[in-house]
Amino acid sequence: MATTPTYPGVYIQELPSAVHPITGVATSIGAFVGYTARGIDNRAEQIFSFADYERLFGGLASDSELSYAVQQFFTNGGTQAYVVRVPRSGAKGAQVVFNFLTFTALSSGTWADGQLLLDVDYNGVNQATDPTAFNLTVTSLVDGTVESFANLSLNNSFNNYITNVVNDPDNGSKLVSVQVGSPAPGAAPALTGLVGKALVIAAVNNSLAGSPLVTGTVKLVAGSATVAGSGGREYQYREHLEHRRQQRLRRAALCYLARDSAAAASHFDQNLLQRDATSTDRPWFGRATSEGP
């Protein structure tokens, strides 16, 4: 800063030095490169504890010297490290293909066989403006990790195009990558999971009564346990009474356990009601080609 003279005399002005001192940096950051039980291949991951390592790379493994080295590093006071997983030679990631979409596990090896699950739903998605829009959920059954990606699109002109979102290295999936086949699908993938249907009164009646309604007339014979009818069906009246008696016994048991007759009766009725439902297969990852886990 220039000095402003205000009186006669000698003034001292300090000029900044052109030599910049070296800024001190941390010298205790560890770096580990090698095989781990699982984790994203060939990508450096920053960790601050062995718990981070377990979450990202699967913890200790008998065939991974790196895992024990990382454990000892943090046991002996280490606070920060970078780990790069190197897959085994010839190892490949598990894959699943549906609706011209190929999903591949980012971590190669057999660990992902049957352990990664994809779910598709349309909750909150406006398919009137984009018929290819859908929601995607990726679940790891190994550690319970769940990744949700809302309002994805198969239209490559949109910002929410599936590869732009899922394959983003910073905010995308840490479990899978996706490729869109050619030609690109013109509709969203089918729903997965349990898909329910509307209740049908006749089906509810059948569930409660135990048999469908029979049209016609019935005839009771004094001293006989047989009910005869003109509707083409006969059955033992004693069996019918036994069925009703078992229903009353179950209701009484529920009332006793619940100590509340109203709540027990309501619970009993809910147990009898059944929804017509069909189970749609959810995509599971097939076996990977790999040596070892």
Summarize the structure in words.
The chain has 6 helices and 14 strands. The protein has helices spanning 50-57, 65-75, 162-166, 201-209, 237-258, 261-272; strands at residues 30-34, 44-47, 81-85, 95-98, 101-105, 116-121, 134-140, 146-152, 176-180, 193-196, 218-220, 226-229, 235-236, 277-280. Strands 1-3-2 form a 3-stranded mixed beta sheet, covered by helices on one side. The chain has a 3-stranded antiparallel beta sheet with strand order 4-5-9. Strands 6-7-8 form a 3-stranded antiparallel beta sheet. A hairpin with a 5-residue loop joins strand 11 and strand 12 (226-229). The longest helix is centred in the last third of the chain and has 22 residues, at 237-258.
Helices and strands in order:
Layout: E1 30-34, E2 44-47, H1 50-57, H2 65-75, E3 81-85, E4 95-98, E5 101-105, E6 116-121, E7 134-140, E8 146-152, H3 162-166, E9 176-180, E10 193-196, H4 201-209, E11 218-220, E12 226-229, E13 235-236, H5 237-258, H6 261-272, E14 277-280
Parallel strand pairs: 1-3
Antiparallel strand pairs: 2-3, 4-5, 5-9, 6-7, 7-8, 10-14, 11-12, 12-13
